[in-house]
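Practice problem 4.
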């Protein structure tokens, strides 16, 4: 149970791991975008258009004031055109504006307003198109990454899965790729546009009036510092909140998964108390985070107003006094243009700081995905591997040793041979290496030394797929998919007809209970076969193995007990299934052991005894002790 909680917390933690190899990851990531480079070029062009349309606006508004609105006033004050020209030095849009009559001025102003509207429209369309283009490319990239990952995950060995949690892998395929997709289609564009806008606006301000620009921009460093500080604090608080959320989830997961134990041990009240506590911690962390986020906007707004006040104050005073600012002649239009510029800086500064985090976590997500894609395949077919010919079923283990962790031998010098069609039972205490032996046959793991051959062929010389296709496996808790019973059995042989599926079910003695299900063979099973009893799930997995009609059968007998009637059915089904096939059984049933042609007794990774039931009992060794402690009870019960 603790494991679940730790894991959920681990997941939460990962979100904040900073990317380590940014340039390498980005380069690899760019590879995914290569097929869509044209779309990218179009998107960047559209971003430039959109930013350009925004940068143009303040200047046009300033020009409207200088050329069409202040000119008449100046004309009234002045006595001639030359004075007028001096008083509106910043009118570059229409230098002849001062010579126009008022009707022409209105018309000129109308055109300028129409241009502004056109710019707004152009900006909006370009913006929409950018998001569509990036969203489109992002989805394509996302799909390719997920498919690549899914494909790779299917080829990774059991060794890999014993080291990784399913939840973690799922999170890489879903959450990480989702974060990346969002970053591509939203954060990246906004940050790019934001940076472009800031640089462009500042450049325009500096070129229009270096000194006025510097005065106006004094506030920008404060904006940047406060944004960085507040968002840093908010991020920390959100991190705490997410960690607490991880605890809430872990607590929930434990209580729901372990609801039977909770009820059986009457732990409801303690659980509620725990849940209350972790929720309270989550609430406090969230409130803190919200407090910092709420404080950021007014602070920036306040600083923005100060900047506006500086522009208005400095500009206004100089205008009223008719003074130059170190050689720059100010006009009302220029002051208004600067006011507008300053206003435009506020939003991108705020956005960049927030979205930068998204981009960082997307890069970290991409790193995790590439890490998974780089996970080496442990079972690789030799370049000259052949297809396994139809198996007869003679199997030989020669001096086989195996280890999961380098240097820690789990199987030592295992040698035995089985003739085609015979049943071999493997018994031994827990951890003796029984599962390891059966995992080596279909090459779920490779031997460390020695050799396993089937019909005289080393299993390493044939392709794993052609070998596995001819081996049937029934595990203690075989996985049933949430699909119909028919398809679950057909999984053993996708080309089987409905009639063949039913035949396999009959062989497995599963037909009677299946026909009694609400929709018979078309009943859809719950996740992992929920809704069926353990015995019924086993019967379906036996039918599935029968469907594949393998020459070699691997069977891990269930340890958990089922009712006597189901037990008999399973036993009968297995007997039928084992007939004529070379079978390896990790045996937990006395009947299987008694019927086996050969019994291997395993202890600490070595075969300590071998023989048939009677020989082994007579030897009064390890098997005899096992029999006395485990199997005799079954005999007594029977
Ligand atoms: N994926 C793995 N990674 C590392 N060690 C493993 C792995 N799987 C098994 N082992 C170790 O190898 C040894 C043999 O395990 P194995 O599962 O083969 O035993 P077993 O006889 O089948 O046990 P049981 O009856 O409990 O299923 C044990 O010490 C076990 O801890």
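Answer key:
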């Amino acid at each position: 149970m603790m494991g679940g909680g730790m894991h959920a917390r681990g997941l939460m933690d990962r979100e904040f791991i900073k990317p380590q190899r940014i340039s390498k990851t980005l380069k690899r990531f760019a590879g995914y975008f290569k097929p869509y480079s044209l779309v990218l070029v179009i998107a960047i062009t559209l971003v430039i258009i959109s930013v350009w349309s925004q940068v143009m606006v303040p200047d046009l508004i300033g020009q409207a004031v200088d050329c069409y609105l202040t000119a008449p006033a100046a004309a009234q004050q002045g006595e001639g055109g030359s004075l007028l020209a001096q008083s509106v030095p910043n009118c570059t849009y229409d230098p002849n504006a001062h010579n126009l009559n008022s009707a022409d001025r209105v018309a000129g102003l109308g055109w300028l307003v129409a241009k502004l509207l056109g710019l707004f429209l152009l900006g909006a369309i370009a913006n929409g198109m950018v998001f569509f283009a990036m969203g489109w490319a992002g989805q394509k990239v996302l799909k390719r990454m997920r498919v690549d990952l899914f494909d790779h995950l299917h080829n990774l060995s059991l060794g890999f899965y014993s080291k990784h949690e399913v939840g973690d892998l799922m999170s890489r395929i879903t959450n990480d790729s989702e974060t990346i997709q969002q970053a591509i289609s939203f954060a990246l564009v906004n940050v790019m546009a934001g940076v472009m806008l800031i640089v462009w606006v500042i450049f325009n301000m500096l070129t229009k009036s270096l000194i006025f620009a510097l005065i106006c921009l004094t506030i920008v460093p404060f904006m940047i510092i406060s944004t960085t500080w507040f968002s840093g604090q908010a991020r920390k608080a959100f991190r705490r909140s997410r960690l607490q959320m991880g605890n809430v989830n872990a607590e929930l997961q434990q209580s729901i998964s372990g609801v039977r134990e909770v009820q059986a041990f009457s732990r409801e009240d303690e659980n509620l108390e725990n849940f209350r506590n972790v929720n309270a911690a989550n609430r406090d962390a969230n409130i803190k985070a919200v407090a910092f986020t709420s404080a950021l906007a007014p602070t920036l707004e306040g600083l923005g107003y100060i900047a506006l006040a500086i522009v208005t104050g400095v500009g206004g005073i100089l205008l009223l006094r008719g003074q130059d600012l170190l050689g720059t002649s100010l006009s009302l239009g220029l002051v208004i243009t600067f006011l507008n510029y300053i206003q435009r800086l506020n939003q991108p500064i705020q956005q960049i700081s927030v979205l930068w985090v998204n981009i960082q976590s997307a890069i970290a997500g991409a790193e995790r995905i590439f890490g998974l894609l780089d996970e080496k395949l442990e079972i690789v077919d030799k370049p000259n591997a052949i297809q396994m010919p139809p198996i007869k079923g003679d199997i030989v283990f020669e001096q086989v040793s195996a280890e999961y962790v380098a240097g820690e031998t789990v199987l030592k010098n295992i040698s035995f041979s089985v003739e085609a069609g015979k049943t071999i039972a493997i018994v031994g205490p827990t951890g003796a290496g029984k599962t390891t032996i059966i995992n080596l046959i279909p090459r779920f793991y490779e031997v460390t030394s020695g050799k396993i051959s089937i019909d005289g062929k080393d299993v390493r010389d044939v392709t794993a797929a052609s070998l596995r296709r001819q081996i049937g496996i029934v595990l203690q808790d075989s996985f049933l998919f949430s699909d119909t019973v028919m398809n679950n059995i057909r999984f053993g042989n996708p080309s089987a007809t409905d009639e063949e599926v039913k035949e396999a079910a009959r062989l497995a003695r599963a037909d009677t209970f299946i026909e009694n299900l609400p929709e018979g063979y078309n009943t859809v099973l719950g996740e992992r076969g929920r809704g069926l009893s353990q015995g019924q799930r086993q019967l379906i997995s036996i039918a599935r193995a029968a469907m594949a009609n393998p020459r070699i059968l691997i069977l891990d007998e269930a340890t958990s007990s089922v009712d006597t009637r189901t037990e008999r059915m399973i036993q009968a089904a297995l007997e039928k299934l084992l007939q004529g096939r070379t079978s390896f059984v990790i045996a937990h049933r006395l009947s299987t052991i008694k019927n086996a042609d050969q019994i291997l007794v395993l202890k600490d990774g070595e075969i300590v005894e071998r023989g048939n039931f009677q020989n082994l009992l007579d030897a009064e060794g390890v098997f005899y002790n096992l029999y006395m402690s485990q199997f005799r009870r079954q005999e007594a019960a029977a």
